Amino acid sequence: MIAYVFWHRRGEQADGASYEDALLGFHRSLHRSPPVGMLGSATFRVPRAPWLDGEGYEDWYLVEDFTALGVLNEAAVGRGHRTPHDRAARGIADGAGGLYSLLEGERALADGEPGTPAPATWVARPPGSPERRLGELLGDGMDPGRASLWRRLLVLGPAPEYCLVAAEASAGVASTRLPDGWTARTVQREVLYPG
User: Interior CA angle at 68 toward 64 and 72, to 5°?
Assistant: First the structure.
């Protein structure tokens, strides 16, 4: 399973409520008529992430594989989804994306209804770190039915290499377990659309 993650901020010209309404409209459109290979989507309000300049949003689009990612790319601006996509896109000031692969757990992205907290712990390792395989242990202690551990596939954006989506950080991302130079930062997100 692959996740396309898109971080974005609304432009000054966009009203906050209208922007979020447009964003939800796009996710609902994909839910009603999912492109082939799409497994779900979710969106979150992010009060502050290190790679966003202030408040922003984080969208997750889950697909089966790279072929399904291509189908989603075409379908998002194609017949049936173009109007809600364009309505949301008009309000964006800037954005960045990343591709992640599921390492462990379920595809759980949000464990709650709109308005509930949905923390994500982002783990970075220093370039050239010899402990690369340690990343597979970051989910140690997580509930695999309610959490998921993701690893970046390509360096397309500013976010770290690993992401643990879980209501509570597992023992695997504790500072006492991480090697020198590795960092774990929990970002408190708020569910807007749980997928």
Answer: 125
CATH number of the domain that residue 148 is part of: 3.30.70.100
- Report strand pairing: 120-124 vs 162-165: antiparallel
pLDDT beneath 70, residues of the chain: 107-108, 110-111, 130-133
Give the phi and the psi of residue 28 in degrees, each rounded to 5. -65, -35
Two structure tokens written together for 8? 């974005």
Angle at 154 between CA 119 and CA 89, to 5 degrees: 65
> Does the pTM of the predicted model rise above 0.85?
yes
Whole-number Å distance between alpha carbons of 122 and 124: 7
Q: What is the pLDDT of residues 10-56, one digit of tens each?
A: 888 888 889 999 999 999 999 999 999 999 999 999 987 777 778 89
Parent domain of 150? 2-193
Q: How many domains does the chain have?
A: 1
Compute the distance between CA of residue 40 and CA of residue 45 in angstroms, rounded to an integer: 18
**Which DSSP category does 117 fall into?**
B
Whole-number Å distance between alpha carbons of 69 and 48: 28
Confirm if 43 and 27 have CB atoms less than 8 A apart.
yes
